[in-house]
Amino acid sequence: MKKRLIAAALLGTVYATSAHADSTGCGLGSMVWDGQQGIAPQVLAVTTNGTSGNQTFGITSGTLGCEQDGVIQSSAQLGMYTGSNMDALARDMSTGSGESLHGLADILEVSAEDRGRFFAALQENYASIFSSSDVTAEEVVQGVKETLKSDAELASYAV
User: Fold this and answer.
1) Most CB atoms within 10 A, among 70, 108, 130, 142?
2) For residue 148, what are the CA distances in angstroms to 102, 110, 132, 143, 157?
3) Alpha carbon separation from 1 to 9, 10, 13, 14 (Å, rounded)
């Protein structure tokens, strides 16, 4: 009995002192446990979302607290785009133009008036961005960021 009381007290302390981080996403579980703080409600929300498979429905329908804006955090989207388009980016970056560079500029929200400079900067730094034949997407992203940071007019686009 004593062990149960100690375990309950510890769990209660953890529950009471835990800060709620909105890390459960959207879905039925997130709505049911909304406003409650601590580890237990977060675990229950994630478990409910995971076992019922309702987040996909919520995202596609715009219900269950999910938004249909399709926005992915820029740095994550940049990594995914780069990884999926490495060959096209290498080709287009070497020439300073092309569809993949326009896609990259869209992700980074480069304004129309800055695109010429953006394309030229990437072309000028092609050798450092694509430093070897086995360069990774992460290294390319880092190279693009460094290129943007080193240009005063483009620095604001570095994610």
Assistant:
1) 108
2) 15, 11, 20, 9, 7
3) 12, 14, 18, 20
Q: What is the pLDDT of residues 34-72, one digit of tens each?
A: 778 777 777 777 777 767 666 666 665 667 777 655 544
> Helices 74-84 and 137-149: crossing angle, nearest 10°?
120
* 157 SS3 class: helix
d(CA 19, CA 145): 33
**Whole-prediction pTM value?**
0.55
Which residues, 6+ apart, have CB-to-CB distance to 151 below 8 Å? 117, 121
Q: Where exactly are the structural domains of the chain?
A: 2-61, 74-157
